[in-house]
Amino acid sequence: MSKSQLKVSLGQYSLKGIKDENEDAYGAKIPSNSEQLENKGITIAIADGMSGSDGGKEASRLSVKQFLTDYYSTPESWTVKHAANRIMSALNSMLYSQGQKRYSSSKGLVTTFSTIVLKSQTAHLFHIGDSRIYRLRKHELRQLSHDHRIWISHDQEYLSRALGIDSHLEIDYQRLSIEVGDIYFLSTDGVHDFLKKETLKQLLIEHQDTPQVATEVICNAALANKSSDNISCQCVQIQSIASANKKEFYEKLTQLPFPPDLQTGYILDEFKIIRELTATSRSQVYLAEDLHTQKKDKSNSSATQVVIKTPSINFEDDPAYIELFMHEEWIAKRLNSPHLIKAYNPQRQRQFLYTVVEYIQGQTLQQWMLENPKASLVQVRGSITQIARGLRAMHRMEMIHQDIKPDNIIIDLNNTLNIIDFGSTKVAGLAEIKSVLEQSNIVGTANYAAPEYFKGEMGSNRSDLYSLGVIAYEMFTGKLPYGEIAPQRAHKKTFSYISIREYNPQVPEWVDLAIRKAVHPNPERRYGLLSEFITDLSKPNNALLESNKTEPLLSRDPITFWKSMAFIELFLILILLFLLQKGFI
């Protein structure tokens, strides 16, 4: 079976009906670029300018046009839900503010809005207002959207939700699996208010293989049935779904062969290998020169230095490993922060599978910590703040690093900290694309990985925050908050926090409490935002200090609790011995 891309047949039609002008709008985009089709999908949208709205026609047209344009401009790493919510929220704010400004009314620029994004094997539905989304599957017609109408009387109703009607926006969202043969039907109320569901179903079945004909027939049927509104609809038939068999998927991944063993002086696609930097069982990392830069610029006496990472020959027949290896550079190209390593794009064809990133001259945070045990509060806060900025840039792109550790932080000659190695990074947008591969839940390095990973749970932004908290703890103490963690027994580990002040009494209590919260075993009890953690490292959080006072000693300081219990036990034993010696018992 060969790979099939997502493919649809689309029909769209609109009539102004008995009205003077058509205030409905519709649109769709089917990307011709296969990469965009895979990463962003197909989008269909319909809108109906609210009756009585001063700028309903403008609102509906602007909403459809803007959504279709902006959606494909959002990062590929974003989920469909995140991208659509951001766009619709921005649209709502713009329509509401412009409606107030130009018409001095909440009914200035108001429209219903319904859209479907078909990505991989999933339909993502977003809806607000009383336009509708239906699905016909195996001759069963189901209304998927809910009308946001409030009826005042038998013949009087108004929209309770719409774009531009209020500064606050609440969007209905659903995600559904799609099947070949499914028909998704979108309509404005000029259609579905004047055709019975059974009639609509019959017309869709009769013309299921010709969506354009179906839309024209249905609109004219609504008009003949005395529709008193604009009449618009869209019909989308799923012809094929993105899928691939394992053989073809593997062949695609292995189009480029693994590089040979690289030695000093070897030339790889005009990259000259200078020396090996690191080597593990999973990859080799080399310092290299891009000889092509000297050819382009004769005045440049030295070639640009880069870092080349090659896959280990041990994984030559492992598709999951190869896919992750390829994603690492894909991720680096889509990130932009002074605290994240940058991809290097030589803009020439490669003969082998490898990744290229900028070369950062400096040392790892791990090396720095060995040379600077028990760092000061200023040093720790400055380092953690920089790492957090890099993580924030990743989290804004819906990426979770999943392997934050001192070895993956490089300090350059200007004392700027850079996060490297995106080999374990989870990308929410890519996770929505169905693959023949089942990726295991990556947990990074045991000592720095959040406890939820060991339970088989999915990571979140708070998992990266946990790793950051462990680094802060280690910078202060040279120790780990829960001691060494053996990967094979991590799922059975008992996480009992050891106060930083046990190892470094110079650290203020409020800093210890902030780090304790950051590395809490339960992600729900950690900070929700990186900025909150940074703030609490900068000044005392009185609420945190107060809550700590009311917490039982066993919970807030188990070591002190058990020391106290041991002392009490020893004291009682001494008293008992004294009484025995004196003959009292």
- How would you sum up the global shape? globular
Sequence of strands across the biggest β-sheet: 1-12-11-6-7
Helix content: 25-40%
Name of the top-level CATH class of the largest domain: Alpha Beta
Number of strands: 22
Number of helices: 20
| Mean pLDDT level | 90
Q: Looking at this structure, what is the CATH superfamily of the largest domain? A: PPM-type phosphatase domain
Topology:
Layout: E1 7-15, E2 24-29, H1 34-39, E3 42-49, H2 56-71, H3 80-103, E4 111-119, E5 122-128, E6 132-137, E7 140-143, E8 149-153, E9 156-159, E10 172-177, E11 183-187, H4 189-192, H5 197-206, H6 211-224, E12 231-240, H7 246-253, E13 267-268, E14 271-279, E15 283-290, H8 291-296, E16 304-311, H9 319-333, E17 355-358, E18 362-364, H10 365-371, H11 377-396, E19 399-400, E20 409-412, E21 417-419, E22 426-427, H12 428-431, H13 451-454, H14 461-477, H15 500-503, H16 509-518, H17 530-538, H18 542-550, H19 553-556, H20 558-582
Antiparallel strand pairs: 1-12, 2-3, 3-4, 4-5, 5-10, 6-7, 6-11, 8-9, 11-12, 13-14, 14-15, 15-16, 16-17, 18-20, 19-22, 20-21
Helix pairs in contact: 2-3, 5-6, 11-14, 11-17, 14-16, 16-17, 16-18
